[in-house]
Protein 1
Amino acid sequence: MKMLWERDGRSSRRAFMLGACGLTALAFLAFAAAPAAWAQERDVSLGLPGVRGGVVTTSEPQAAQVGARVLRAGGNAIDAAVAVQFALNVLEPQSSGIGGGGFMMIHLAESKKTFVVDSRESAPAAADPGMFLLASDPSSAFPFGIRSTSGIAVGVPGTLRGVATALESWGTMPLPQLLQPAIEMAEQGIRVSSRLAESVSSARLDSEPGNPAYDQARAVFRPGGVPLAEGDLLVQPDLAKTLKRIAEQGPDAFYGGEIARAIVDTQRNARSLADPVDQAKLVGRMTLADLANYRPAIRQPVTGDYRGLRIVSMPPPSSGGLTVIQILKLLERFPIGDESKGFGFGSAKTLHVMIEAMRLAFADRAVWMGDDDFVDVPSKGLLDNAYIALRSKQIDPGARRADVQADDPRPFDTAALPAKVELAALALPDEEGVNTTHFTVVDRDGNIVTYTSTIESAWGTGLMVPGFGFLLNNELTDFNRIPAFNPDPDAFNPGANDVAPGKRPRSSMAPTMVFRDGQPRAAFGSPGGSTIIDTVVNVAMNLIDHEMPVQEAVDAPRIAQTSANGATRRELGFSEAALEGLAALGHSLRSPGEIGSVQAVVLDPRGQRQFGAADKRRIGGVVSLRRARSAAD
Ligand code: GLU
């Protein structure tokens, strides 16, 4: 089967008209803020017969422009991605930045190698599994609103070392050059976007009025107590100073010295609570040694086959790749694309089996997945064909399964481990943010970066490092808040994601690439906490099963199920008949709400034409570069 998105791109009159201009390097920038402008972007990304000079797609159009400038100046995808990340720290400070972490997947065209730079935040050496428990009542954890806005939630930041490592190893440009656009934007100011303006009013910036550590961010984003509005000028001199210092002295200026000391001091702030013992528990435990010792990890992605394509995605400590691939493989036996059999996009039957597969995979995720530098994650077993077949049998196309439980993939992982003897699964509901960002870059040579980057919740902890202008993440709230370790070696051990010193919290981030015969065909990912996994599955199925062109695949309404037995999230846009069909099968659907924000690139079968798409659910900007004739032809 040859997917629509794998065939040569479609041409349009507009494309020919633009092509006839005879410009040697033409950039197409699309803004998706208004419906009319979005329609224009659709034209740009779909109407043109693809480009060859590179594509940058981000949730912030100005960040896409920054990346495109790097590509135009001769930089590769890694260079552009580094510049985009710094630009996003200025443009979208509530979502990602040097105070956070992320997962960058890189494909190098020449060596055909695909790997991951894991810059996930880690727990300090003094962390312990009970650190989120109330001192006054150790059977309960601090509520999310409290622990996620306290120093105890701050993980050792990884983003800067992550991008610097990627750049040193696979980039071509010096770090100071790639910091320059962000420094200029922070110094000279940016116009506040609609999304930033909306976020500035969020309650996550309300913590602890009068506490200087929390007042810092308010002073920047609510100057004089007035939230910045769309179109206002936002100047960030402290952030500019920090980025300049990194440009002059390198990443060590962040992981040691004055900035490191300021980070450690800032995360020692806690929310004020009536009980002084409880309050003391919320103080962050990061030390200068934790910062100095932080290193990103270079990892092999997890892979699995789906309808003849190879899905390559994020390994532990993210649960993203394993869960995405499990869901797809659980669904592979159904003719999802075949409308004549009652399937096809958005039919009740298709949505039903998707939900059932998501339930099964999320049940396993809750028990088995965590940082496999610390725990044995049965990754092979979870994706083993025999195990998948066993699990997939539990999907009845005609009925919702009453109760979904995790199973034991260990016998399929290695013969040495015993089979399950009891079930002790603890599925705590996830309380992850949805404010991360995802961007994708492909360059003229076919190198690809697809990168999900985060400070976890909007504004992270809300703690901004005084005088340095960046926010500290609350990533450690992605760990189990109540330890779930089961000491019985024969039992299920849902403690895979318990806190431990130096461990990285389980993520859902899932930058993903799709390959056929070794050639990359698509690269994408999304923010959205645990719904990231479902979003990536929706888009993969839209491309592969429903043969949609990339922008349609991104635009189409999504469903998401993030637990074994809870309700299903959905977006507006599914037919009444499908929704009624799901209700009749026993599914309970939440009221509609947006899910994810996908930035995707698709490549033609020979890897020559590149198509970008940005998600209209956020602002979204794609820059597509036609290759300069003189250089290319
Ligand atoms: N902290 C989440 C994770 O690592 C991401 C949060 C988000 O998408 O906003 O999975």
Protein 2
Amino acid sequence: MDFIQVDPQARQHVALIQLNRPKELNALNLQLMSELRDALRQLDEEEHVRTIVITGNERAFAAGADIKQMAGKTAIDMLNVDQFATWDQIRKTKKPVIAAVSGFALGGGCELAMTCDMIIASETALFGQPEIKIGVMPGAGGTQRLTKAIGKAKAMEMVLTGKFMTAADAEKHGLINRVVPVELFLEEALELATQVAQMSPVAARLAKEAVNRAFETQLDEGLHFERKNFYLCFASEDQTEGMNAFVEKRKPAFKGR
Ligand code: DAK
């Protein structure tokens, strides 16, 4: 891995992926995205990992797709490379993924953060879809996820002017979970990941799927999906363990089965 660092055991049951192209503000070139896809796929399969945190550094989560790499491309080059397949695989990670964002989260960087299930930001974080300033538009979900998160008016303004949103505003408008001082953003994300990792991994996976389904379906279909996943929880040992532990007034020991 040249452009990311992976710690599969940053905390108990919590893996950490750090984007690592600091000089380029973690611009997401094709290799970085492939490495990220492969790492997520592997961590998704590792039994001891229950939640995953993706972070950058204090200055940048990621300042977008690598403009220098894209600059000379034609539509057919883009089609042939099919980066969407990589992004789709990242989106399909089954375990909960938390973005720990500080500094720039722009373009593809903002889209990557929004692809995660929760976002913890430092007070210096800046979110934006500035693609319009370089003659294009968001291409990895920005027009959809941003709009669903913060509403049409604010999303339209960001997408059409490229203006950035501060962490405080991002929290106010529901884009992120919370803002913390810069020295704490990673710690806070790892702490949140640890909390989730203490739950039943089976229930967490099914619940994540069901929440995400709310973005893709009408209420009736979403409720139907939720119900199926709810029933499925009752096929797990974790359901028996969780409920017995409550009755016996002890902490549950979930196994992900
Ligand atoms: N790409 C390449 N290099 C970048 C970069 C980027 N997105 N962002 C920054 N860098 C590089 C700079 O070129 C500079 O490199 P050197 O000149 O030192 O070699 C270095 O990082 C430091 O940046 P600055 O010197 O510019 O630092 P400043 O503090 O002055 O400014 C900045 C920071 C973040 C405001 C500025 O760097 C900036 O405006 N960056 C570009 C932000 C941007 O426009 N992002 C959107 C890119 S388009 C797709 C999926 C996704 C996408 C497309 C397709 N498919 C699935 C098909 C996404 C597209 C995008 O994200």
Protein 3
Amino acid sequence: MNNQTNQIAFLGIKEDLTLSDLRYMLSLRGEDQSELFKISSSVKEKFVGNIVYFRGLIEYSNRCHKNCFYCGVRSGMRAVNRYQMTDEEVIEAALFAFDHNYGSIVIQAGERDSKLYTQRISQLISKIHQKTNNQMHITLSLGEQSPDTYRAWKESGAHRYLLRIESSSEELYKKLHPQDGKHLYSARMNSINALKKLDYQVGTGVMIGLPFQTIDHLAGDLLFFKQLDIDMNGMGPYIEHEGTPLFKYRDLLASREERFNLTLNMVASLRILMKDVNIAATTAMQTLDPQGREKAIKIGANVIMPNITPVKYRKDYLLYQDKPCIDEEAAECLGCLERRIRSTGNEIGYGEWGDPMHYRRRR
Ligand code: 5AD
Ligand code: SF4
Ligand code: FES
């Protein structure tokens, strides 16, 4: 073993990784990167096993009152055809997941907060539970809401909530969002804290490879996840979208290959740092590398979100360009993902909720 290999092995067992340890881990490439991956894979096997859990992803609506500079469905995008699935379509998708033994589903949409809307979500959650004999775990990803709304949804039967912090650096967050009083870092933090207080299983995450983002920001993001003691994580590469304000900074971006490598190193480093959390192999990884999700699973991720949105809506939910699975029906994605996961030597946790070990342990 050379010195470098020794040093990487040591980081695999070190208790309190520092900002500079993480910065170093994120910068590894080539053979050193492979060493990092060896360690993160063995941590995964030891703490969460080589099992991948499915969460059927329902992209419920692309209506959104926010205007994030990076996003392809931001309210300022005039050309986007706005939709909202009917209750029947949502139930049908949930039943597809149920019939195919997915332990859980995710309902994701842009952000809206009218009383009518939040009540409708509550009703939808109750209906899904009725139709699936309370056998499914439901994750929501519906943005910032008041603690009362989060409470109402939890009482209706939601178990988990995903709210990415996007960047844990307030200074970078400001560059990615309009300064109009509606996109406050502090409000986002309050939301995450409210979700934790309500005893949701809480997931957050960031985009990787953003303009103005440095390795220090990303190492800081990892420490932020640890400090918040999150249960779940979803991180993906930033992918520029032509119609958005951030597109003009595309010359500042690292190559797609570099952004992909950085994302893999973030996943591997988080697995080593937090060991028993659930980490998603995100769809955006597949945009940058045809085997992106499989690669993430091999080195630390243990959750995947097969898209079960009706195909007729998919082209209207393009948060970024070149999103995969635009024309594939749920059944096609399922077959495809099964093959992909088998190729990694992992099993699929059919019929299991796949709650994060971390959530169970911290309680
Ligand atoms: N590239 C990558 N991810 C994006 N998201 C939004 N826009 C983009 C983009 N251009 C992510 C955000 C958001 C999640 C639903 O999609 O992180 O939280
Ligand atoms: Fe709306 Fe989410 Fe897109 Fe921001 S990232 S504009 S909140 S859908
Ligand atoms: Fe959708 Fe492969 S996962 S087509």
